[in-house]
Amino acid sequence: MAGTPFERHAIKELDLEIPSGSFVSILGQTGSGKSTLIQLIAGLLEPTSGTIQVGPYTLKQGGKQSADVRKHVGIVFQYPEHQLFEETVAKDIAFGPRNQGLTEKEIKKRVEMALEWVGLPSSFADRSPFQLSGGQMRRVALAGVLALAPDILILDEPTAGLDPQGKMDLLTLIHRLHRDQNMTVILVTHDMNEAAKYADYLFVLADGTCRLHGSPSEVFQKQKQLTALALDLPEITRLIHQLNQKVHPPIPTDLFTIDQLESYLLERLRKVENV
Amino acid sequence: MSQIAIGQYIPGQSLIHRLDPRAKLLFVFAYMILVFFSNHLYSYTFLLAFTFVAMFLSRISLRIFLLALKPILFLIGFTMIFHLFLTKGGAVLIQLPIMTVYEEGLKQTVFISIRFILLVIMASLLTFTTSPMDLTDAFESLLKPFTRLGLPVHEFALMMSIALRFIPTLWDETEKIKKAQMARGADFESGNILRRAKSYIPVLIPLFISAFRRAEELALAMEARGYKGGEGRTKLRELHYTHYDVWLVIVFIGLCIGLWLLRR
């Protein structure tokens, strides 16, 4: 669309590095360029300028390596259950591996592996994906991507539209995959709680460029900047801030789960009692 | 959307944009009939000149009109060749061993292509300067008398506006599903036609499912808001004829007279 009135730069002057094997989260409001960024990384969009390095592959305008990159990057779009199309769960999950040209035996193994990873019993394999519940359909769609055995897994708001329990289950599952399979995970979200709890490193995008980055504790210390970008602090950080108005010495703000905060407070209480 | 196509609306404030959509619709309809009454080089020049003035008044760049003509160039070329070689009459212009080109054939070739161009440009002018909403309203309003004959005019217009409304939505959806399947290794570009058509199954099935889901949701939302068809329903935006539309009628009468004088 270059040169027309419809031209718009979704991303500009963006320079970031995601270490392999890490769990990073990309935060930002709607229209901040998150979706464009992940599609660039996944080799689904071609950059009009600049380059993207994914492992040994370089993506640039007119480059030919996007097909190679796609073999290593799995991308789960928003509402991935809308891409299901096969008659059975197993056939749908097998779509990716089959396109990779694997043998029937390997495909079968991949399907079983993916079903297990997403926590669905193997009895689901022969059911129609369209008769499952929303949460189950999403797991099947996720399994369809995981069956590619990607090195990098990109998730675009994977928990949108799920109930709180479903959200937590899904993220725990992704985190376990990251830990056990050493998968690089890029989680796009605008839920600060999810980002704080699971990611090692955060990138905050606004207007197509990276405004803030760092570990969750570093990023969430910059409350003013976050507010200026219309982003919130995680609930737990807000709670700690409120508590700190009453207690001294202040509670550290790098605690991002209720369990961490609980054990910290218990220990502190014990110390006080011992004195 | 990646390119400007025939039916695209291009917002603007020109004289043509401000005409009442009903008047425009009727005018274009009548004009298309009028084009077929033209049979002379002078009358075609007359109509061409009028069309150019209309194009100029719409303040839409010539480039966009050329883009609209592009898809039918093939059709024009095809009919041109047929007329050039198959129409007989008048003096022989070129004598080839297999076929002969007659004077009448050359004449028809030029006329037919001008006729095509006139029709497409006028139709494009209508869609370029009239929003789909206005166009459907105009349809509904003009066809209203036929309700008495049992024609479901309102439902017809509603179907039309819903279809138009969902073209961009479904287009976006297609792109999204296509990308998702591409990420799973689907290949839409290589192989023969049959293979390529088959490769679109993983896109089409989810697309149909989502279209049906959307339709169901829309129906539910409409019912929830008390929609019960066109009877007794008032409109938020009503169409009004203005003095510009009177001028359009005068222009049309002028065209008819001009054509009649040039026809003889």
Automatic annotation (TrEMBL), chain A:
Membrane-topology annotation of the record: Peripheral membrane protein
Entry GO MF terms: ATP binding; ATP hydrolysis activity; ATPase-coupled transmembrane transporter activity; cobalt ion transmembrane transporter activity
Name recorded for this polypeptide: Energy-coupling factor transporter ATP-binding protein EcfA2
Source species, domain of life: Bacteria
GO CC annotation: ATP-binding cassette (ABC) transporter complex
Cellular localisation: Cell membrane
EC number: 7.-.-.-
First-listed, main subcellular location of the protein, grouped into a coarse class: membrane
InterPro entries according to UniProt: AAA+_ATPase (IPR003593), ABC_transporter-like_ATP-bd (IPR003439), ABC_transporter-like_CS (IPR017871), ABC_transpr_CbiO/EcfA_su (IPR015856), ECF_ABC_transporter_ATP-bd (IPR050095), EcfA2 (IPR030946), P-loop_NTPase (IPR027417)
Keyword Calcium belongs to the record: no
Listed PANTHER family: ENERGY-COUPLING FACTOR TRANSPORTER ATP-BINDING PROTEIN ECFA2, HEAVY METAL TRANSPORTER
SUPFAM superfamilies: P-loop containing nucleoside triphosphate hydrolases (SSF52540)
UniProtKB/TrEMBL annotation, chain B:
GO CC annotation, single: plasma membrane
InterPro entries: ABC/ECF_trnsptr_transmembrane, ECF_transporter_component, EcfT
Organism domain of life: Bacteria
CDD domains, alphabetized: EcfT
Coiled-coil regions, chain positions: none
Topological relation to the membrane, as annotated: Multi-pass membrane protein
Subcellular localization(s) per the UniProt record: Cell membrane
Residue ranges of the TM segments: 28-57, 64-86, 106-128, 244-262
MF term (GO), any: transmembrane transporter activity
Chief place where the protein resides: membrane
UniProt entry tagged with the keyword Cell division: no
UniProt keyword terms in alphabetical order: Cell membrane, Membrane, Transmembrane, Transmembrane helix, Transport
Keyword Transmembrane helix: yes
Subunit-structure text: Forms a stable energy-coupling factor (ECF) transporter complex composed of 2 membrane-embedded substrate-binding proteins (S component), 2 ATP-binding proteins (A component) and 2 transmembrane proteins (T component).
Family of this protein: Belongs to the energy-coupling factor EcfT family.
PANTHER family per the UniProt record, alphabetical: SLL0384 PROTEIN
Function: Transmembrane (T) component of an energy-coupling factor (ECF) ABC-transporter complex. Unlike classic ABC transporters this ECF transporter provides the energy necessary to transport a number of different substrates.
Stated name of the protein: Energy-coupling factor transporter transmembrane protein EcfT
Gene: ecfT
